[in-house]
Amino acid sequence: MSNHHHKETFITKYVFSTDHKMISKQYLVTGIFMGIIGVFMSMLFRLQIAWPDHSFSIIEAFLGRHQDGGVMTPDMYLALVTIHGTIMVFFVLTAGLSGTFSNLLIPLQIGARDMASGFLNMVSYWLFFLSSIIMVISLFVEAGPAAAGWTIYPPLSALPQAMPGSGLGMTLWLVSMAIFVASSLLGSLNYIVTVLNLRTVGMKMTRLPLTIWAFFITAIIGVVSFPVLLSAALLLIFDRSFGTSFFLSDIFIQGEVLHYQGGSPVLFEHLFWFLGHPEVYIVLLPALGITSEIISTNSRKPIFGYRAMIGSIIAIAFLSTIVWGHHMFVSGMNPFLGSVFTFTTLLIAIPSAVKAFNYITTLWKGNLQMNPAMLFSIGLVSTFISGGLTGLVLGDSALDINVHDTYFVVAHFHLVMGVSAIYGMFAGVYHWFPKMYGRMMNKTLGYWHFWITAVAAYGVFFPMHFIGLAGLPRRYYSNTAFPLFDDVADVNIVITMFAILGGSAQIIFLANFFISIYKGKKAEQNPWKSNTLEWTTPVEHVHGNWPGEIPAVHRWAYDYSKPGHDEDFVLQTVPLKDGEEES
Amino acid sequence: MTAILYVLLAIVVAISIWQIASILNLKSVVATEKDNNVQGILFAVFGVFFYGLMIFSFVKYSVILLPDAASMEGENYDTLYVITMVLILVVQAITQFLLFYFAFKYRGIKGRKALFYADSHKLEMIWTVVPAVVLSGLVLYGLFVWNDVMDTSDAENPLIVEVYAKQFQWEARYAGDDNELGLANVRNIKGINTMGVDMTDKNALDDVPVRELHLPKGRKVIFKFRSQDVLHSAYMPHFRAQMNCVPGMVTQFAFTPSMTTEEMRANDKTIAKVDGINKIRAEKGEDPYEFDYVLLCNKICGASHYNMQMKIIVEEEADFNSWIKSQKTIAQVVK
C-alpha cells in the first residue's frame, strides 16, 4: 500500500482525506458539535418540564417563533425531545462514537496501513456530514423540525394535519436519516472487510483486542439492521408523498376521511425496532469494547475471561436481532409474540451479566491507575449495571404493561445506553487523545469532569425511576393537567437542577479537549504503558501508520503483570520467551 | 442576539476553567500515586453518595408511587413487580458495592504488581448459570401473569366497552343490552355520530355512547380500543392496564375492577398520596384534589397529548346498572 511519498494539499489532508486517522478526528469533532446541540436541547426542555409557564430569557433567545414570552410551545417541546433523541442516538453515539474509534483503532490495533478502502471511508464520513447538515437545517424550517418522537411512528409522522412538525421538518428528517444509513453501511462494510483481511502477521482473531471484537461485531449488526430502517424510511416517504398506504388505514382527521386503506402502523413499529433495538447495541458494544481495553490497561491486569467476553459480545449481537418486539408489548400485536419476546429479551441478561461480573473481577487485586479514562470506564460499569437491571422490569411483557412509555423507561435507557455509552466515548477520548493529536489532555480537568458528571447523571436518572413508577407518561409538555401528578413537580425540579449541573460540566470537557489540541503536553509514544499495537506507531502521524515494516504479533493484548517479565506490560510485538505459555 | 451572548458566555467560562487549571496544575497528564490514592478514596465517597441517594429516594419518594392495584389481574402484577424489584435491589446493592470497594481497595501503589488472573471457568460458570436459573423463574412467572391478563377466553359474561381515541379526547361506547358492539368505521363519521358507528347494523342500535367511563366492581371488563387519527395509548395506571389505540384495527385489553372509587379513596396509600398533593396545592392556593381513577393518553399524539384524559368511576354493580340504564342509546342520540 501507500509507503511511497505523495504530495498532500490542504484539501486532501484535512478535508477530503482518505487517511483513517484524519477521518476519525473528523467524526469525533462533528459528533462533538452535534452533541453540544443535543445536550443543549435537553437543557431547554428540562426547564419547561420543571417550571411550566415560567418565562425564561434563554428560551426566548433560542426558540424564536416557537415560544411565546419565554415559554415554549407544546409543539416545540415535542420537537426538542425528538431531535434530542435523534441526535444523541444516531449522530453522537453511533457516528460520533463508533465512527471515531472504529476508524482510529481498527487499522492501528490490527496492524494495517489503512482501511480496506480509504475512498469509501471518506465517502462514508462526508455522507454523515451531509446528513448532519440536513438535520441541522431541519431545525430552521417554518413549521419547526420533526416532532413525532425519535421513533417517528406514523400516522403522527405521516400527516402534516396531525402536527406541524410532520411537514417539511419530517421530510428533511427522513432524507437525513436515509443518507445517514448509507454512510453507516459504507463504514460498517469497510470495518468488516478490514478486520477480516488486513490483520498483520500473527494477529489471529483470538489475539485481537476486545475493542476490535466489539467494533467488528457492531459493524455486522449495523449491516444486518440498518437497511431495514432505510426501507421503513422509504416506505414512509411513499406514504407521505405518493399516496401509498403501507402504514396508514381508516383515518379521519380535521373533519375529513383520508383515502388510506389497508396499511398498519404496527408494521412500521416492527420495521423501526428491527433496527431500533440492535441500535442499542450498536451504541453500547463499542463503549464496552473501549472499556474492556481501558480497564485492563489501567488495572495492570489481563481482562478477566477474554474468551467469555468475545462469546458474550457475539451472544448479545445475535440475541439483539430477535428481541425488538419488547418495545411493542402493548402495541396490539398478538399476545403470544409478547411471550416469545419476553423469553429472548431476558436471555440477553445472561451475557450482559457475564460482562459486568468480568469487569468487576478484572479490578480485583489489580493495581489501579486512576487516569480520567479509567474513571469513566468504572463509571460505565456502574451505570451499565444500574440501567441494565431495570431491564428485567421492562423486558417482561407482564410488568411492561404499566411502566411502558413512562419516565421509568426514560430513566432505564438513559442509564444503560445513554450515560454508559457516553462514558465509553469520554473514556476513549481521554485514552486515545495522545494517539489522535500527539498531545495529552489535562488530568485535573478530567477528574472534575468525571465527578461532576457522575453525580449529576445519577442525580438526574435515579429519581426519574420514581416518577415513572408514579405513572407519569413521557413526552408530556406539562404535568399540570393532572392533579394526580402535582406531587412529582418537586422531583422534576431536582432532576432539572442535576441536568443543568451535568450539562454545564461538559464545558470543562470541551475546554480541555479543544485547548489540549493546541496547547496540551506533547505525548510520549506509549503514555499508558499499554500492550496494543497502536502504541508502537510514532507520535507524529505518518501515512501508512508505521514508517517501516508492519510489526508482527506474537501474543494476545492482555499480558499485564505477567509473571516472568520485569515490566508490568508486554507489547503484543514481543515474542514469547522460551517455555513461556501464551495465555 | 441574546443567543450569541449565551454562547459567548459559555466560551468565556471554558477559557477561564482552562486558565484556573493551568495555574493549579501545569501539564499534569498521567495519574501519579497520589492521584490514585485521592481518586480511589473518591470512589469510596461516591459509593456512599450512591447508596445515600438510593435510600433517600426510597424514603422520600415512596409516597408518590401508585397505590395498590385496583384490579384483580393487577394484584398478580404487583406480586411479580415486588419480586423483581427485590431481586434487582439485591443484585444492585452487591455489584455496586464490589465495584466501588475494589476501585478503592486496589488503587494503584508504585511497585506493586497486579495479580495475573486471566480466567476461571468455575467462576464464569457460576455467573452464567445462576442468572440463567433465576431468570427462568422470572420468565415463567411473568408468562403466567401475562397470560392471565391477555387471555380472555374463559371470561363469564364480561362487560364489553369500546374506548375510542382521537386528538385530543377520549370517548367510549357500551355494547348495550345485547352486549355486542355494532360495527363502526371512520367513513361513517357524521355530525353527532362522532365514533362512526354503522347505524344500519342492528347490534349498534342499543349501544350507549358516553364521555365518562363507569365500571362495575367484580365484573370482567373487556375493552376494545379504536383510534380515528394517530396512535394513542389508553393507560389506566391504577388498574395496571395499558393498550395502544391503532387506526385501522381494534385492539383489546381486559381487567376486573376490584375496588370502587370510594374504596380507593379510603385506601391508606391513596390517603397519604392525596394528602401530599393537597399540601402542595394549598401552598399554591389551589382547590383540594379528590382522588379519581383516570384514563390518560400515553403515546405521543400531538400538541395536546399532555392533556388527553377521561375520568373513570368504579362502583358497585347495582349502581352501575342503574347508571347505564339512565344513559341514552345511540339510536336515541343519532336520529
From TrEMBL, chain A:
SUPFAM superfamilies (UniProt xref): Cytochrome c oxidase subunit I-like
Coiled-coil ranges (or none): none
GO molecular function, one term: heme binding
GO cellular component terms listed in the entry, alphabetical order: membrane
Major site of localization recorded for this protein: membrane
Subcellular location: Membrane
Keyword Heme: yes
Domain annotation Cytochrome oxidase subunit I profile: ranges: 10-566
Topological type in the membrane: Multi-pass membrane protein
Transmembrane segments: 27-47, 77-106, 127-153, 173-198, 210-238, 271-292, 304-324, 336-361, 373-395, 407-433, 445-471, 491-515
InterPro entries reported in the protein's UniProt record: Cyt_c_oxase-like_su1_dom (IPR023616), Cyt_c_oxase-like_su1_sf (IPR036927), Cyt_C_Oxase_1 (IPR000883), Cyt_c_Oxase_su1_BS (IPR023615)
Biological process, per Gene Ontology: aerobic respiration; electron transport coupled proton transport; respiratory electron transport chain
Keywords assigned: Electron transport, Heme, Iron, Membrane, Metal-binding, Respiratory chain, Transmembrane, Transmembrane helix, Transport
Pfam family, one: COX1
Record-stated family: Belongs to the heme-copper respiratory oxidase family.
Protein name: Cytochrome c oxidase subunit 1
Species per Swiss-Prot/TrEMBL record: Lutibacter oricola
UniProtKB/TrEMBL annotation, chain B:
EC identifiers of the protein: 7.1.1.9
Subcellular location: Membrane
Keywords, comma-separated and alphabetical: Electron transport, Membrane, Respiratory chain, Translocase, Transmembrane, Transmembrane helix, Transport
A GO biological-process term: ATP synthesis coupled electron transport
GO cellular component, one term: membrane
Pfam families the UniProt entry points to: COX2_TM
Residue stretches making up the Cytochrome oxidase subunit II copper A binding domain: 156-326
Membrane topology note: Multi-pass membrane protein
Enzyme class: translocase
Keyword Membrane belongs to the record: yes
InterPro entries: CcO_II (IPR045187), CcO_II-like_C (IPR002429), Cupredoxin (IPR008972), Cyt_c_oxidase_su2_TM_dom (IPR011759), Cyt_c_oxidase_su2_TM_sf (IPR036257)
Residue ranges occupied by any Cytochrome oxidase subunit II transmembrane region profile domain in the UniProt entry: 58-153
SUPFAM superfamilies: Cupredoxins, Cytochrome c oxidase subunit II-like, transmembrane region
Coiled coil residues, start to end: none
Domain of life: Bacteria
MF terms in GO: copper ion binding; cytochrome-c oxidase activity
Transmembrane segments: 6-26, 38-59, 79-104, 125-146
PANTHER family xrefs: CYTOCHROME C OXIDASE SUBUNIT 2 (PTHR22888:SF9), CYTOCHROME C OXIDASE, SUBUNIT II (PTHR22888)
Family to which this protein belongs: Belongs to the cytochrome c oxidase subunit 2 family.
Protein name per Swiss-Prot or TrEMBL: cytochrome-c oxidase
